[in-house]
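User: I'm putting together notes for a lab meeting next week and I want to include a structural view of one of the chains we've been expressing. I don't have a solved structure, so I'd like a prediction I can at least talk through. The sequence is below, exactly as it appears in our construct file.
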Amino acid sequence: MVSSMPSSDGGLVEVLRYAAFTADGMGGNPAGVVLDAHDVDAGAMREIAAEVGFSETVFLTDRRVDPAGRTLMTTRYFSPLAEVAFCGHATVAAAVALAERGVEGILVFRTGVGDVEVRTTPSASGPMATLTSVAPYVVTPDRADVTEALGALGWGPEDLDPSFPVRVAFAGNEHLVLAASSAARLSALDYDVPRLTALMAARGWTTVALIHAVSPTEFLARNPFPVGGVFEDPATGAAAAAFGGYLRGLGLVRAPVRVLIRQGEDMGRPSRLLVDIPEGDGGIQVTGAAAPMTS
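Assistant: Thanks for the context. Below is the predicted structure for the 295-residue chain, given as C-alpha cells.
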C-alpha cells in the first residue's frame, strides 16, 4: 500500500506501508516506510507518522555506498507521538522494501543508537531481513519500579515466573522484561494506561516486554507501548534483540542458539521473530520477513 503526503517544501512524500515479521501482510507489525526523506524535516516526519498511525514510521534521509560496498543510510523513526532512537520492525520493513527495489546485500542503518547492520537474503516467499543490534546490556531495576509496573498491569508476585528474573534489557532501546507464570496470564493482558505510561516515560523504557516460556528456545511475547501512542505492539524487533541479550547475559541459554518469539497472536496479528544469540557480548541478530500491506 502506497500513499503520498506533503513534505516540508510543499512537495509530496511517498509513504509505503509494510507489515514486518510476517510473510503475507496479514499478521506482523505495520510500519510506515519513507525511502526518500532527504527534504522532510522533523516536524513533517512527526506529522506523517501521526497520520499513518502505526507504532512507527521510518524515514531514510540519505543513501550512499561506502568503499566496502555497503549501503549506508541515515535513519530516523517516529511513533505517532514522538521520535524514537531505534525500531526493529520498521528497520526490517525498510530493508525488505529496499531489496524489492534492487537495493540488496549489506545495509547499514545509521540510527540514533549507532550503526545497525542489516543483511537481506532471498527466500521462497520474498526477501528476508536480518538486523544485528548494537551491543546489548542488562540491568536490575529498582524494586519500587517493579512494584509499580506490576500494579499498573494488575499482576501480583504469583504471576511472575521466578526462572526469569525481572530485568531491564537494552539492544537499542530499554525494555522492562517480566516473565508471566502462565500463557493464560499473558493472554489476559489489560493495564492502567496512564499509570504505566507515566512509569515508562519516567524511566525511559520503550516497551514492557512480557514473555512466557513455551520451551527453552520458544517464547510467547506481548509488548505494551503506551508511550508511543499504541496499546500494544504486535511484533517488536528491538525488544526481541534486547530479550536475546537478556537470555545470554543471565545464562538462561547456551550460545550460540536460535530462539523463536511468537508475538501478536492475542491481537489477531500473528508474528514470528527469529533471534540468533551469538557467543560473546556482541549484537543480537533478529530475522523476519515483511510484506506490503493491501489495506
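A couple of points you could mention at the meeting. Residues 137-289 form a domain with the Diaminopimelate Epimerase; Chain A, domain 1 fold (CATH 3.10.310.10). The chain has two domains: 2-130, 137-289.

User: Perfect, that's what I needed.
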